[in-house]
Design goal:
By secondary structure, this protein is α/β, with parallel strands linked by helices. The protein has helices at 2-8, 14-27, 86-93, 97-108, 110-117, 125-145, 151-168, 181-197, 202-236, 240-255, 263-270, 284-296, 312-324, 385-388, 459-465, 467-477, 484-492, 517-522, 541-548, 556-560, and strands at 41-45, 49-55, 275-280, 304-310, 331-336, 357-364, 371-377, 394-398, 402-404, 421-423, 425-430, 448-450, 454-458, 497-499, 505-506, 525-527. 38% of the residues are buried.
């Protein structure tokens, strides 16, 4: 009986079975999964569990170290030094699909959310039955082929295996199966029944089954990583139609340059008594939608001035677009960040546009379900605000993936109690939980993480507190570490964040499915943070309608580039 039990035990060894879930919880990812996401790290917190910070920015390289596209450094994960009890692992294993989805999200991020919500019901019952039979036949065939007395059965089994392989190589659903497939199934079942009745060495069959299991798992893992990579490629690549729009606008600009700005508009750009909004963007359509939605809900659009900060590549396209499109009574200024002259830039180091950085922060705890939060924070470019806008005292910074649905004039009357940055906080991620993530830096245990998207910035206090200097010092100290922007931003603004009411912004519309539509309709500002931006085909359809209504489908440039 002991020998029989040993032969029939599952493919995975006992220690692997017992620790399967525990290992996944501790390591979150045992090796680099998606190269090119900025460096990611998970660290243990003895009191709160494991915190894995995953950056999700705009460049990717490949999978498992294969350099497919030049991008950012490899992500990294670190195991929790405290092991998870085996009994807990066994209990967690019972949780099934939900926990599996969470572990998938730890490894692959929002790809798993997208995959889960785009599963199609496929009629492939017969195809799956064929695969099962083929699996068993392959396991028995080597043992049968070694026995000279069973040449006839061996030949018949080989023919059936080859026939099934041929059919399955071109078929994935039942309706594509050839005629008389039922007869082939019956024939294969009969051959397998004969093979099982033969006296063969079970250990050989067992070894073959183990090999097939390993190959199947490797194949499934490969397809998962390949799918995740293609998803990353789709969400991080500018759509062809948007690239067309930028190129056409640039060409048109040089054909018919926009007229010089008159003096009255130039004065408005510098007038600190007006309401100034700043948008860092390299996307013409996205920044236009932000401005359009803001002015359409403004009580007094004539008091609004928008400063769109972009790079040299998109500067001329932006200039033409905003000179030809009017936004009520508001004024729009386009700035090329590469032309900005910095006071402390003696070596004339080139300045490059960087957009808000997005990160995935995952906590996997022993006694509670794992949780994943998505944060967006200021990028390097945001810390140039005081030098770009010398004459301004207060600005509202908007990300280019937001849509405004209410008047924002109340923001200018908020007393921020001497704080620098008015932002919506995400107290599901506290700095105390990320203590080890910050190394030996002092952490205020009561501080919460905060979000970019909608930020009220007091530039006077910013200059007084030398926020930019603090940030640059931290970046220099952390230069060789991972997720530098997140670390430095959270530490820089410790004690300098004024918590805006949560009602101001509804975040997560670029990764979170199932948000109540009434809540979306009633929100003051919608933030599409996450991978699935509303201008992409992979955008979450239930929410993208709120973005598209601020884009004019009749615009000739959009029609020419097939943007619909």
């Amino acid at each position: 009986m002991d020998d029989l039990m040993r032969r029939l035990e599952p493919t995975f060894s006992k220690d692997i079975r017992e620790n399967f879930v525990g290992e996944a919880e501790n390591k979150t990812a045992g090796s680099p999964l998606l190269d090119g996401l900025p460096k990611e790290r998970s660290r243990a917190n003895q009191s709160t569990g494991v915190a894995a910070v995953h950056a999700a920015t705009e460049n990717i390289k490949g999978i498992d170290g294969s350099p497919m596209l030049d991008g950012l450094p490899k992500e990294r994960s670190r195991a929790n030094s405290t092991s998870v009890a085996t009994t807990h692992a066994a209990t967690e294993n019972i949780k099934g699909i939900d926990e599996g989805e969470k572990l998938c999200e730890l490894k692959f991020g929002s790809y798993c959310l997208w995959r889960h919500n785009h599963k199609e019901k496929v009629n492939d019952l017969t195809v799956r039955k064929m695969k099962d039979l083929l699996y068993v036949a392959r396991a028995y065939y080597p043992s049968i082929a070694k026995l000279p007395a069973l040449d006839k059965l061996s030949h018949e089994m080989k023919q059936n295996i080859q026939e099934f392989e041929r059919v399955l190589s071109v078929t994935t659903i039942d309706k594509d199966l050839p005629p008389l497939i039922d007869q082939k199934l019956t024939k294969m079942e009969a051959v397998i029944a004969q093979a099982k009745a033969c006296r063969v060495d079970c250990s050989n069959v067992d070894k073959k089954f183990r090999q097939l299991v390993d190959l199947t798992e490797d194949e499934a893992t490969f397809h998962m990583r390949q799918s995740a990579f293609l998803y990353q490629l789709a969400v991080q690549t500018m759509p062809k139609s948007h690239h067309c729009l930028s190129m056409r606008l640039t060409v048109e600009y040089f054909r018919d340059p926009s007229p010089d700005i008159d003096q009255s508009l130039a004065e408005r750009h510098l007038n600190p008594d007006l309401h100034h909004f700043v948008i860092f963007s390299n996307n013409v359509l996205a920044s236009s939608a932000v401005i359009n939605s803001t002015v359409m809900h403004a009580k007094e659009s004539e008091s609004q001035v928008f400063h769109v900060v972009t790079d040299r590549q998109n500067y001329f396209a932006m200039k033409l677009w905003f000179s030809r499109n009017k936004y009520m009574e508001a004024t729009v200024e386009v700035l090329n960040i590469e032309d900005v002259k910095l006071d402390n830039n003696k070596a004339s180091t080139p300045i490059h546009l960087s957009l808000p950085d997005e990160y995935r922060v995952s906590f996997h705890k022993v006694d509670r379900p794992s949780t994943t939060e998505y944060l967006s924070v200021f990028s390097h470019s945001h810390y140039l605000l005081p030098q770009i806008f010398h004459s301004l005292k207060k600005v509202v910074v908007l990300d280019d993936d937001v849509i405004v649905q209410r008047d924002l004039s109340d923001l200018w009357g908020i007393d921020m109690d001497g704080k620098v940055n008015g932002a919506v906080q995400s107290c599901s991620v506290r700095l105390a939980q990320l203590r080890k993530f910050f190394g030996n830096k002092r952490v205020d245990e009561t501080s919460c993480a905060w979000m970019s998207g909608l930020n009220v910035v007091d530039l006077v206090r910013w200059r007084e507190q030398d926020i930019s200097g603090r940030y640059l010092k931290l970046v220099k100290e952390m230069n060789s570490e991972e997720a530098v922007t997140l670390r430095a931003s959270l530490l820089t603004f410790q004690g300098e964040v004024y918590a805006l009411d949560d009602k101001w912004v509804l975040s997560g519309l670029g990764h979170k499915y199932g948000v109540d539509i009434e809540a979306v309709k009633n929100a003051r500002v919608l933030h599409f943070n996450g991978k699935m931006k509303p201008w992409l085909e992979l955008g979450i359809h239930d929410y993208t309608v709120f973005w598209r209504k601020f884009v004019d489908p009749e615009n000739q440039f959009l029609s020419d580039c097939n943007i619909n």
